[in-house]
Amino acid sequence: MTWVSRQILRSYSGWDRLTKIGFWIAAVLLIVGFVFLLFAPMDQRGWVFAGLIALVIVMQLIVLWGNRSMVTVFTQAQRIYLAGDLEGARDLLEDARSNGTADVKALTLLGNTYRQFGQLDESRRVLYEALDKAPDHHFPLYNLGRTEAAAGDYTRAAVLYEQALAAGAPAVTRFDLAEACFLKGDIDRASTALDHVLPSLNEPHRLMMAMWWRAQMGTGAPPPAELIRDGLPYWAAVAERFQDTPYGKAIADTLLSLQSDMKGDARPNV
To answer: Measuring CA to CA, which residue among 199, 135, 193 is closest to residue 162?
Structure first.
């Protein structure tokens, strides 16, 4: 009960004026109702008690209405992030980080945002802060793997992906594991990871790259030209974002090969 009261008081300042007035009217009526219950004749107390229950329900509805626009920092920042405003998301999350209110998810999203900016050292620092809060949480483990991969440390990235999978990360994480293993030359592990994840891939950029890896390993056909066309924009953005890292250069080289294959597919048979 004390915790509920604290939560109401903490969120009360964000309510609009009419909601505050409605809450206090209901609170006063509740107090009056309790007093009336004490002195009401026995045959009327049932009706009074039913009225008190109705008032409690009304107050709960008022609290829910007052908090209707309140969301966590993570949710706010995620919406901004997905809308493409990376600077806005970063600033909001940094404010939460500086005042100590950023939770594991918020810190992880902040680390992701820095990675999108190409600031890999800062991304790594923030993601380690998230892991300090929750060492076995798959969300920061996976995203730290993404940052290490972007920096070209594929061995470290693969370890982190495996830890994330053991901690409950989605199965699609095996795609990232396959990427790290392929780029570091561990073909057997890359092939095993692809065996598990390839049947479930439906996003063009992932399916395209997975088929390309399979073709390079000699275990599958290369992606068709139409799939390459659909998948290229995503990877072109990745190559540009990380152009100063070994990872960015590896992706750029892959794209050159893919584009060459696509042009070859477009040529008529002679």
So the answer is: 193
> Could you tell me how far CA 122 lies from the centroid of its own chain?
18
Cα–Cα distance for residue pair 201/221, rounded to 1 Å: 16
Higher pLDDT, 58 or 107: 107
Nearest CA to 161 out of 65, 130, 169 is that of 169
Amino acid at residue number 224: P
**186 burial type by CB count under 10 A (0-12 exposed, 13-18 middle, 19+ buried):** middle
User: Do residues 161 and 176 touch, judged by C-beta distance below 8 A?
Assistant: yes
Structure tokens, 98: 């500086």
Per the structure block, which two tokens stand in for 212? 């390309």
Segment 102-113, tens digit of pLDDT: 899 999 999 999
Residue 195 CB neighbours (<10 A): 13
